[in-house]
Write a structure and sequence with these properties.
By secondary structure, the chain is of the alpha+beta class. It has three helices and three strands; from the N terminus they run βββααα. It has a three-stranded antiparallel sheet, with no helix packed on it. The protein is elongated and about 60 Å long.
């Protein structure tokens, strides 16, 4: 495009670390988007406090409590991964609180406690937002 064409750039970052960048050329309306996972590459391993304990080959997610709990667990895992990544850079008080939330989330998933997990997801989300 010739110099002087105006382009609008939109950046959307969600709490799980996904960044979506959209560029729109205002004159023609043409747009291009890209999504970036700004979280830790490679996912989580057995050491992760919120790792999925299910058997992926059998289709068993490890929760057995239905779609609501599975959805909450799927939301919880990125929060936990992101929180674990931040632990080394936090003061003792914040790190202890995050570790506690991670452990409680893991326990709520194991216990199939959707109500508690929903509250913990909100707490993790809030804390990650402010950190």
């Amino acid at each position: 495009m010739p110099a002087g064409n105006k382009i609008q750039i939109n950046l959307d970052l969600d709490l799980s670390g996904i960044l979506e960048v959209t560029a729109v050329e205002l004159k023609t309306g043409l747009s291009k988007s890209v999504r970036l996972d700004t979280g830790r590459a490679g996912g989580y391993g057995a050491e992760s406090a919120c790792a999925d304990t299910g058997d992926p080959e059998s289709g068993n997610s490890g929760t057995g409590a239905g779609n609501a709990l599975e959805s909450l667990a799927a939301t919880s895992r990125p929060f936990c991964r992101r929180a674990e990544k931040l632990l080394d850079d936090l003061d003792e008080t914040d790190a202890a609180e995050l570790e506690s939330l991670i452990e409680q989330s893991r326990k709520a998933i194991e216990d199939q406690d959707a109500e508690t997990l929903e509250q913990l997801n909100e707490s993790l989300s809030d804390m990650l937002f402010y950190l």
